[in-house]
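Researcher: Here's the sequence for the chain we discussed earlier.
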Amino acid sequence: MGVVAYALGKPTLNLIGFFYGVPLLLGGLALKAAELKPTPFSVPTSPEILSLREQQATPTQNQIRNDVTRYRYGQEAHLDDSLERLGLSPNDEERPILKGIRETAIEGQYALILEFDSPFVPLETWQQQREKIEKFFGPGIRVTVEQVEESEIEAALIAVNEE
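Model: Thanks. This is the structure I predict for it:
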């Protein structure tokens, strides 16, 4: 708009374009630079699991799923604050990276599986923090941690029926 106004010799419109357009452009570029893409589902969720989710998922499981599957701005990695508080992120370079999530049923209970690339934090450290993870994401959640490949850790947040 400012270029057109300049070409037509209308300095007032040119100033509006300059004073509003440049800050909007810079703001948009800053947001794009601070953008964190959504974590993908590694396996599509079946209708049976969606039904189980509606019945059993805890508010925390829903919040985690919703947070990591949308664009985020101003964060370096998904769940970075949570991992730091749990003692699983010694520093930014060694932080485990959430690379995927999936939903499944474990022993008839809804489970949200967080798939991490964790080359610097060994399975033993994850297992030592398992109870702390349960308390952090609980109540109503049981956590299992397992290593599926050399540097890949899966943390299963399993809904617990408290009857």
